[in-house]
Amino acid sequence: MNQKPKYKEYDACIIGAGIAGIFLAWLLGSKGKKVLILEKNAKVNMNGADILKPSGINILEKYGLLQELLNKECRIRDQLGVFYNGIHVNQIDYKAENERGYFMVCPYSILLEVIYDKIKKIDTIELLVNQSFSKINEAKKGVYITLKSGEEIYCPLLIGADGTQSMVREYADIKAHINYYDHVMYFNKYPITSSVEELNRLYIDQDGGLAYFYPINNKEARCVLGFNIKEGKALKESENRENLISRLRKFVTHSDDMLNQIDSLDNFLTFPLCSMHSEQYFKGKIILLGNAAHSIHPVTGQGMNLAVEDTGELFIWLSKYFDGEISLEEALSSYKERRFELNSKILAYGHRLASSFGNETDFMNSLNSKIQTSSRDPSIFNNI
Ligand SMILES: Cc1cc2nc3c(=O)[nH]c(=O)nc-3n(C[C@H](O)[C@H](O)[C@H](O)COP(=O)(O)OP(=O)(O)OC[C@H]3O[C@@H](n4cnc5c(N)ncnc54)[C@H](O)[C@@H]3O)c2cc1C
After folding, report:
1. Taking all residues of the chain, what is their mean pLDDT, rounded to a whole number?
2. Beta partners for 133?
3. Which domains, from first to last, does the chain contain?
4. What is the per-residue pLDDT for 3?
5. Pairwise pLDDT comparison (271 vs 373), residue with the higher score
6. Is the pLDDT of residue 88 over 90?
7. pLDDT digits over 188-239, tens only?
8. How many angstroms separate the CA atoms of 81 and 150, rounded?
9. How far is CA 74 from the centre of its chain?
10. Is 127 in the pocket of ligand 1 (CB under 6 A)?
11. Taking CA 115 as the corner, what is the angle to CA 165 and CA 93, rounded to the nearest 5 degrees?
12. pLDDT value, residue 272
């Protein structure tokens, strides 16, 4: 009599159904691989960044997703107006800086939904929500994972795509260097206004104030506000609209129609801001991807982009491994080689920029149009 195997087997197990996890699962599933994704929340995470830069768009185009995103409500933009202490100090022009000539405002939820809809049609991908792991045991040939439900899984490789606070990273005992910022950002959306339709405007002030307004579709505008933590807390707790608006009016000079819509910070989403880089991108058969490997200040607009870039790169090397062309060790070393140094430099850029708000000269010297528009030309990183 055949005995039921104790362990359910997959080609890959992915922890975390954010953009990195979902995108990689779809790519591997499209190749016929049997993939398990575990998501600790009851639903796939729909909260995240909005901006896709040319480097990320290139990857999505390569895998046939660009046209579909354009058919959704994603907006194409090519200009960013940068203001310091209320004065227009820079105009970043994607047409001049990057051959693609534009970036996209593509809310996280839209990108996730497009890929998630594809995943549902692939039989070899299994997504378990409200689920995570309780134990990981790495053996010579693969990884044994005990799920919170008690079920036992075996796969040749495990991918931690479980965000900045990655438990997989902790389990693999991979150290990460984290700098928390004394800065908090608040995210909300309002009906679109003519100033937002006209131009994406990023405002910074010398006391840590930040405001960024841009369209997320034809009807709504994203409103991102930022303050030093103490000031943000006081403005939120005072529940006084006048305090908040008069603070914003000190440096938000061309967006009255947006300020008129803001009542309080109450309904804004917020999360701790940090710069983080893990020392390794893999250990044995355990791999880190996206925000599990690194986290960058949102002012760079690179978070979702880097997750997409990492995933595209990892998929190239895992494909070669699954096709029997190279060993897993070679595949993972190549992934690390292609991404680690580059990500280090982009993170260093983001950290320098996010630490420069207090001084106009520092800020202007830190803001690099080429990196901001996501050029990956190594020569632009020489002085970073
Ligand atoms: C509101 C918001 C606004 C943002 N705005 C910007 C911005 O303007 N610019 C920018 O650069 N970046 C921004 N970001 C960050 C950007 O969204 C991330 O860099 C990007 O989502 C990284 O994708 P990821 O898949 O690596 O991680 P995540 O999107 O964090 O996904 C990780 C997933 O893993 C799941 N998970 C975590 N732990 C476990 C576990 N133990 N078991 C199972 N599942 C687990 C989580 O629930 C989540 O679904 C923003 C993020 C948020 C939340």
Report:
1. 95
2. 147
3. 8-77+102-177+273-381 (3.50.50.60), 180-271 (3.30.9.10)
4. 58
5. 373
6. yes
7. 999 999 999 999 999 999 999 999 999 999 999 999 999 999 999 999 999 8
8. 53
9. 17
10. no
11. 80
12. 80
Task: Tell me how far the alpha carbon of residue 141 lies from the centroid of ligand 1, in angstroms.
Answer: 30
Token digits for 334? 């190549």
Supply 154's token pair.
């075996």
Question: Residues in the chain, how many?
Answer: 384
Long-range Cβ contact pairs of 32-36 (< 8 A, separation 24 or more): 32/124, 33/124, 33/322, 34/9, 34/10, 34/124, 35/10, 35/11, 35/124, 35/125, 35/126, 36/8, 36/10, 36/12, 36/126, 36/128, 36/153, 36/155
pLDDT of residue 43: 87
Ligand 1 pocket check for 40: Cβ under 6 Å = yes
Q: Is 38 in the pocket of ligand 1 (CB under 6 A)?
A: yes
Give mean pLDDT, residues 105-131: 96
Q: How far is the CA of 52 from the centre of ligand 1 (A)?
A: 14
Q: pLDDT grade, residue 50 (50/70/90)? A: very high
Check if the beta carbon of residue 50 is closer than 8 Å to that of residue 86.
no
Is the pLDDT confidence value at 29 over 90?
yes
How many percent of the chain have pLDDT more than 90? 93
Secondary structure (3-state) at 195 = helix
| pTM exceeding the 0.70 threshold for the entire prediction | yes
232 lines ligand 1 (CB under 6 A): no
Residue 183 near residue 228, CB atoms below 8 Å:
yes
**Cβ-based burial of 42 (10 A; exposed 0-12, middle 13-18, buried ≥19):** exposed
Q: For residue 226, how many C-alpha atoms fall within 13 Å in the half-sphere facing its CB?
A: 26
Residue 110's identity, in one-letter code, is I
* Pocket test residue of 187, 291, 313 for ligand 1, highest count of atoms within 8 A of CB: 291
Separation of alpha carbons 255 and 37, rounded Å:
42
